[in-house]
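Supplementary Note 3. Input sequence used for the single-chain structure prediction.
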Amino acid sequence: MVIQKAIIKTALFAVCAAMVLSGCRSTATSANSNVNKQATIIDVTTAQAVIKPIPTYFEATGNLVSDESTDVAPAVAGKIAQVNFDIGSYVSQGDVLIRLDDRDARIKLEQAQAQLQQSESAVAQADAQVEQARANVRQAQAQLGLAENARFDINSVAEVRNAKAAMDLADLEFSRATRLLESGDLSRTLYDQRRTQRDQARSAYDTALNGANQRYAAIRTAQAQVDTAQAAAKAARSAVGAAQAQVSAAQKGVNDTFVRSPISGYISDKVADVGEYISPSAPNTKIATIVRTAVLRMRIDVPEQSVGKVATGQTISLQVSAYPDRNFAGTVVRMSPSLNATARTLVVEAEVPNTEGLLKPGQFATVRITQSKPEPAVMIPVSAVKTEGDVNRVYIIKDGAAREQIVQLGLLENDEIQVKQGVRQGDTVATSNVGSLTDGVLVRQG
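The predicted structure, written as discrete structure tokens, is reproduced below.
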């Protein structure tokens, strides 16, 4: 019995000793862990939070539309012979979209050109007749001794003038012979000769007058022929003008068989196939819709209370759901003169460059309209922010240790970001190794 008690005491003592030893080891391990933890120091770079003026903005919503959109339709009826586009194709202004069968149009053009050639030939003939008539006038004037454009005076014609002088002389001689005959100083024979000479001179004068009048009549006849030929030439030229108009109309008919793009842009709708017959007189005759997307219009619905905050020339920043991590810039260029009476909003248009073609007409966008007056804000480097889910943290360095601080962020400006809450001006924040930092860890500033 005594032996059993001794054994039990010994066992109890061993258990107690083991428990004490185990407790001592646990205490030692915990102490060593705390020592190691306190000894961990992380190297970081730092920056101070500063106050900087940043642009202010307000948000609105809107839709993107094309800068210009046009439905293309043919100008003439015909069967489609060729189609040179498809949906999504880019076309330049003047590109041929479709070609119609142009056989009838070309026949009309050839007929009009043949008529024009005939009219031009008639003009050439009429001009030749005018020149011939003018030559006849000049010849008749030369025969009469009349200078071109000179006024006709029959007494100035040399032949008439000479005949009149001869007649006057014969009259004078006959008058003298008459007086001498009465005084008996002249024989009857000589008297009769003087009378005959007078009569012949008068006859010669009448003949000269008649000849001059006839030649002048020939001039007038030739001038009338000139007038007639000129009228014929004018009529021929008028016929040429009419023929040229017909050629132009026929040429337009040929040109209209080529339906060209009125603007540069992308095909958004195609309604044309080879073999179809189309006519501009039929309803819904468009063959395609072209939209210009190099610059898009952003139609923004500005709430009534924010109307005073927007003006032409302001810059905007917009985001679309297709590219949530990208901002697109634009400029306000147009404003509606009145509000929508139902929605109490003002429609504002901004132009948004779209050289990459990422934005599409019809997309919904959230818009930030920048205000003209900047506001002061606490700014820190972007590298100082540690983001986990929806939570943003920074580590303020104080007394050689990192102090974790949850922050509310604002506007991003280049490589700095606004802190709306959680950091004050002058606070020193870690900007490197932030992923390794925890609250209270010791740091060494580089």
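The chain has a mean pLDDT of 83. Helices lie at 2-39, 103-144, 158-183, 188-255.
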